[in-house]
Amino acid sequence: MDFKLELIGVPVSDVDRAKAFYVDQAGFVADHDAAFDGGRYVQLTPPGSACSICIGEGITQVEPGSLDLLQVVVADIESARDELVERGVDASEVKDLAWGRFVYFQDPDGNGWAVQQLPDRP
């Protein structure tokens, strides 16, 4: 049986500010934005990803900014970094590690993201 990771909750303090960051700066697609009794649910998906994130009100008890390792994978780390920086994201310089090349950034609450280019495989 397959177990596919489809959604990760990301705790934020201001849903509109976080949505604007993820859509306008990080380039995520806004899939859903709906109010429900006592809250709001916003689903956002990185381009090309099968897994989405959700932000909102009344959906998690986790402290805003407490996630420190959300990761996406790209084919070209330099192009990914350039795109993020052009969109206004404060992305780190490219870091070369044995298990890939990385760029790091944080959302407005401090939730940490890693962007990885996988190493070439023989």
Describe the structure.
This protein is of the alpha/beta class and 122 residues long. It has one domain (7-117): 2,3-Dihydroxybiphenyl 1,2-Dioxygenase, domain 1, CATH 3.10.180. 17% of the residues lie in helices and 37% in strands. The protein has 2 helices and 8 strands; from the N terminus they run βαββββαβββ. The protein has helices at 15-25, 77-86; strands at 7-9, 29-36, 39-45, 52-57, 70-74, 95-97, 100-106, 112-117. The strands form 2 sheets. The protein has a 4-stranded mixed β-sheet, covered by helices on one side. The longest helix is centred in the N-terminal third of the chain and has 11 residues, at 15-25. The two termini are 29 Å apart. 21% of the residues are buried. The model has no long low-confidence stretch (mean pLDDT 96).
Considering the chains and any ligands shown, give keywords for the structure.
4-stranded mixed β-sheet, 122 residues, 2,3-Dihydroxybiphenyl 1,2-Dioxygenase, domain 1, alpha/beta, 2 helices, 8 strands
- Structural category is alpha/beta
Note poorly predicted spans: none
Largest sheet: 4 strands, mixed
Major β-sheet strand ordering: 1-4-3-2
